[in-house]
Every structure is written in C-alpha cells, then in structure tokens.
Amino acid sequence: MTYLLGIIISICGNILISISLNIQKYAHVRQSQRDSKPYYTSAVWWCGVALMGIGELGNFAAYGFAPASLIAPLGSVSVIASAVISVIFLKETVRVSDVVGGSLAITGTYVLVTFAPHTITHITAHLIQYYIVSWYFVLYLSLEVLLFCILLYVYKKRNVKHIVVVMLLVALLASLTVISVKAVSGMITETIKGQLQFIYPIFYVMLVIMIASCAFQIKFLNQAMKMFDATEVVPINFVFFTASAIVAGIVFYQEFEGLALLNIFMFLFGCLLSFLGVFLIARNRPKIKQQDPDFIALDKIPSRSHTDKVQPEANTQTYGSLAAKLMCNSASRTRHNS
Question: Transmembrane stretches, by residue range (predicted)?
C-alpha cells in the first residue's frame, strides 16, 4: 500500500501549491492597490512562497513512493484546487466551464488512480544502472535527443515560433526530469530505510540531470509565456508533460509491465478526462482588474514540473514560469507586458 502514501503526498502537495500561488496573487493585488512597498517585502507573499516550497517537496517525495505514470497526472488536482480557491479566496466568478471541467478532471483523476499500475519498485543505484543500459531506453533516449535537436534547430535557426514546437521542447526535457526525479527521490527513500545509496556515482549523475533538465524547462516555459497566452500554454503544457511522464515511466521504469489491457485502457481514458477538464478550466479565464500596469497575476499547472521560481516582473529572465503552471487569470495582460 506504499503507492497510496505517494498519492496522498502528491495530492496534498498540489493543494498546497494551489493555496500558495493564490496567496501570492492576493499579495500582488493588495500591493498594487496600495502601491506601497515591493512585493517581496510582504509577509503574505513570503508565506505563499514557503507553502509552495513545501508543496514542491511533497511532489518530489511522492515519486519515491508511487509510479511516475501515476504521480504526474495528479497535477490536475492543483488546477481543480486553484479554481476552487480562487472563487472562495479571490472572489472570482464561477463559470459553467469551471464546473464541467472540474467534474471531468475529478472523474478522470479517480479513474486513473484506480486503474494505474500499483506495483512498487524499490529504486536503488544498481537498478538505475541496469535501466540506463537497457536497449529500449538507449533507443528511446536516442530518438528523444534526435527529435530535440530537430525541434531546437527549427525553433532557433528557422525561427518557427509555434506553440507546439516550444511545448514539445519542454515535454522532451520533462521526460528526463521525471526519470531523474524519481531516481533521486527513490534512492533517498531507500537510504532513509537503511540502504545507503549516496556512495554510488549514479545518484549524483541523476541529480545533475534533474537540475539541468529543470533549468532548461524553465527557460523554454518562460519563452512560451512571453509569446503566447497562458490560456494556451497551461493546458498544452499539462497534457504534454503528463504524456512525457507516462512514456518515461513505461520505457525506463517499465511501470506498465504485466498490466492488463483493461487497466491500460481505463488509465488512458482517465488521463483523457483530466486533460479535457484542465482545458475547460484554463480556457478563457477572466482577467483581474489592476491599477498597476506592470502587475502580473500568478496562477497554476502540473506537473510536471517541480522547480518553477517566483518572479512576477516582466523584465526578469524567469518571468512567466509560475504563470505557465497556473490557470492564468491574466493571460492577455501577461502577453502584453512581455
């Protein structure tokens, strides 16, 4: 029943992230209205940052207890929670699409949790080394690197700034992030249980991969948020990230091995319902009226990725990374400011 612990930790972490980002949004609204001190001098804002750190830590820990293909889709919980909290806390209007989308996302989450692979694999350094040299992962990684290079060439050299191109770059990086996060989290979990894993070089290799892939994800997410509405980026990023996490779990960790066809079909059906729900919730979010023209409202998505930083100024390099994870109540204003 260890996977249940991972599910609970992930759900709690996503809810905390939703609460934290709505607190930060509230702090920005209050600061813009009072026009007083910078946002980072607000105790309320720092409270939100602290909660987000705890939530991200929970998501990281969850990968050590449950399959990656199960934890990643649970990012929809954060979207649902953010929609509910924004209505209660920030007095936003409830739309029909919010109700329908929330219902679909909740149903999809229940279905995928029910039919997801529940086999627990103890992640050790020796197991990671075995998976890395497996022929199917080598083939998968080669194809991923080739596709990434092609997309990067099209994006940089051919100047093709299509949202699908940018989000595919993010998704390919997210695949490596999920693999490395689960490896690091799993080895830390085994160390806590008494089997020391820090003495193996593979632990530090996966740690470097995790940090590097996360950093480049943030970079491309920022660029996507500067070029496109967050209402486009949010659902596409959630779908692509979740899909890449599931594929990574299947190929690297062999999480679907021995799973019945009915379970696989129902799991994918649950993911589809969650995707549709997130699209409906994030679609055409209303803007918040603000007095400060440079104010950026912060909002939510998943999964994915577990490393985004708080930077609401449009002139900073990490601008838009939080908005890329949230439901984006000020999508058009974000694009205008960039």
Answer: 6-23, 43-65, 71-90, 99-120, 132-155, 162-181, 201-221, 233-253, 259-282
